[in-house]
Amino acid sequence: MNRTQLNRSRILRMALSGSTDSQDPENKEETFLLKSIKIALVVTLYWFVSITMVFLNKYLLDSPALKLDAPLFVTFFQCVVTVILCWCMNILAMLCPGSVDFPSIKFDPKVSRSVLPLSIVFIGMITFNNLCLKYVGVAFYNVGRSLTTVFNVLMSYLILKQTTSFQALLCCGIIIGGFWLGVDQEDAHGNLSWIGIAFGILASLCVSLNAIFTKRVLPAVDGSIWRLTYYNNINACVLFIPFIIILGELRTIYNFDKLGNLDFWGIMILGGVFGFAIGYVTGLQIKFTSPLTHNVSGTAKACAQTVLAVSYYNEKKTFLWWTSNVMVLGGSSAYTWVKAQAMKSNHEIKQPKSESGV
To answer: Largest Cα–Cα distance of the chain, in whole Å?
Structure first.
């Protein structure tokens, strides 16, 4: 077929499809622009939900104006709100199947027992996270629970028998160095809470274990993260009750002077809604970007959160304190990049070589 015949065929296809070449670049540009706007909106939504949730929890857990010393009850109530929202989403999905995408949920005691080991770790994770936030400032919160990456490497080796590259271990070393420098600088400022540090370390450990146990338990809920969220929070609601009673938080709540205050319960419900929403927007960000971009966005969000907290609470920080944050965030970002490169290399090695000429 010569060039003239090719041109005629091309013109015929354009005429039949009702399109022209001049429209293609414009359509592509419009599609790219729309996609970019969607990604920007999703990332912004993730940042807003995540940062707002941290500040809301800090208010509920350690506000001088509120004076509520019941961290387990606050966490328990947020789990209750999450369960109720899962039921609401399930009903909406049945009423509007084309508009709301949510898996059908129905309580099964057998599935609940299968999820129970993960639920115990999940309770530790959300409880220690909140207790860490109660005893340390929002500005130091990211550094206080920054050892998650280090525990990921350690637990992967101890439980999954997975080894880690030297570059990844070097990133972990930077994170540990930033963590201890941050602890030293908090102590120098007179703001250090050792109990808050301990809770931050335990929270980091539980976050790491939660990721490992989640992979093992997902088959029990047909691979659905939302079903897992539902069962995790139902189990948590039951398991929290004896601890709330034993630790005397029922009496604290009973004597709380704002128990009949609608504003207080509004903030409590809002905290639960944001706790539910963070799971949704996290999945949404990964869907519209990638796991690597999500981790980078999370690191950038942590940096913005730190700056906002320092500004909001009018705190004065030294150069070394900021250096500790840069080391933690930089080490975390570098670790994410190293792991992404390793996954890419493994994929290329496993991918079969295509034969030439085919």
So the answer is: 91
pLDDT in tens, the chain (358 residues): 454 454 444 443 444 344 444 445 545 545 777 878 888 898 899 999 999 999 999 999 998 888 899 999 999 999 999 999 999 999 998 888 878 788 888 899 999 999 999 999 999 999 999 999 999 999 888 888 888 888 988 988 888 888 888 998 999 999 999 999 999 998 888 888 999 999 999 999 998 898 888 888 889 998 888 999 999 999 999 999 999 999 999 999 999 998 989 999 999 999 999 989 988 888 787 777 776 677 778 878 888 899 999 998 888 889 999 999 999 989 988 888 888 888 777 766 666 554 444 4
Q: pTM (2 decimals)?
A: 0.81
* Angstrom distance (rounded) from CA 186 to CA 178: 12
